[in-house]
Amino acid sequence: MLYLRQEGRGIGIINKLKAYNLQDMGFNTIDANIHLGFEADARDYGIAIEMLEDLGVHEINLLTNNPDKIEAFEDSKVKVIKRIPIIIEPNADNREYLRTKQDFMGAYVIKFTMRAIQLHQFGSVKELYLAEFPTPEPTDYEIRVKVKATALNRADLLQREGKYPPPQGESPIMGLEMAGEVEKLGAKVNKWKIGDRVCGLLAGGAYAEYVVIHEDMAMPIPANLDFVAAAAIPEAFLTAFQALVWIAKLQPAETLLIHAGASGVGTAALQLARLIGAKAYVTASAEKHKLCLSLGAERCIDYKNEDFADRIHTWTEGRGVDVVLDFLGASYLERNLKALGMDGRMVLLALMGGAQAPGINLGLILMKRLSLHGSTLRARTLQYKTALTHDFMELTWAHFASGNLFPVVDKVFPWEEVAQAHLYMEGNLNQGKIVLSIA
User: Fold this and answer.
1) Which residue among 101, 123, 237, 260 is the one 20 to 30 A from 23 at the CA level?
2) pLDDT score, position 8
3) What total number of domains does the chain contain?
4) pTM for this predicted structure
5) Per-residue pLDDT averaged across 8-18, rounded?
6) Rounded to whole angstroms, how far apart are CA atoms 234 and 221?
């Protein structure tokens, strides 16, 4: 067996080590450069072909990823009867070097991995761990983003517990939003370039060093926002925009009741209501009222000690509100129906208070001509989400750039402390978004 190797750096060292291994197994190897008297790391592949021809070798199995070497053999009298790609497993020492080689060598011969937060099994925060995971490759119209920050959502807690699986075909990694830099372009992408700062909504995958996203779903980060702030925009603001503008069709001078007013979606909804010109009331614990008022709330209700339906009845002089934005479901349904006025609309986005509501008086829906809408965003089609993103940016992006709209970030955790971040959200301690910074 003739094993021909050439000295080299990086990937060439891998070949060198394989040659040493073959020597240890008893095979003869020939160093092409030393045999012919050339300096190490020579890149004239004609040298190797010349030596093979001198040795009378006419057919070879070529172990290489190098397109220049392949082309050199195509023009020679030495026939390559089989080309064997070198499959390289990146690790902490060679990952960044190999990334610089990917376009030249071909991604199919380099099995890239990245770090991602994963689960041993469904359950508590003890099941979270950080480990290697295959790096996603962008399809024709996708971009790959080096994630700098991601934000927590209640959906992450449910997914960790096994109660909210990702849509079929989506990443099993948690995380519904991200901010970072474009690192690679799909073959037909024409809206972005390498290095662009983007944020965006995902169906999963953001608890990782890299994500892929359709080019139409990515949003340019305004110059006045850093990655932490940008990561807090997509899920909260797109959810609030969908609920208030697309579904409820909130109008100027209308009245709105927002539950969980200090949550990520709540703080976004308050700002959008102010932008539209609607009057917003919120429910929140007493210590969070100051934040809600600063974001434009007309009045706040301490849900722990006050009946929000009674307060709304008093403050609106019995008319009720035009729109209710709810996350609780069953536990709030009866009072929500009472708080709504004629032709009122309720948008239900979660079921934190339960899914079963026996004994509800449906007559209120009939007599008040109420409309009840339920909506989730994660499993929507790409077409729906790209249209939503487009309309959202048209209304809001200039306001983010000016500072008139802004994400409310409560606390930033390094992603190694993801367990603590989950516990912080589970304890309802946050006022605004919780962000994970990814080093």
Assistant:
1) 101
2) 43
3) 3
4) 0.76
5) 46
6) 11
Residue 145: phi and psi, rounded to 5, are -115, 135
Number of CB atoms found within 10 A of residue 275's CB? 17
In sequence order, what are the residues at sequence separation of 6 or more whose Cβ sits closer than 8 angstroms to the Cβ of residue 119?
A: 127, 128, 129, 160
- 97, part of any domain: no
Whether residue 399 is contained in a domain is answered as yes
DSSP string, 140-209: TTEEEEEEEEEE--HHHHHHHTTSSPPPTTS-SS--SEEEEEEEEE-TT--S--TT-EEEEE-SS--SBS
The pLDDT value recorded for residue 68 is: 64
Instruction: Answer whether residue 166 shows pLDDT above 70.
Output: yes
**Whether residues 309 and 206 fall in one domain:** no
Are both 63 and 131 inside the same structural domain?
Answer: no
Give the pLDDT score at 339: 97
213: domain range?
A: 112-233+382-437
Give the confidence band of 224 by pLDDT, cuts at 50, 70, 90.
Answer: very high
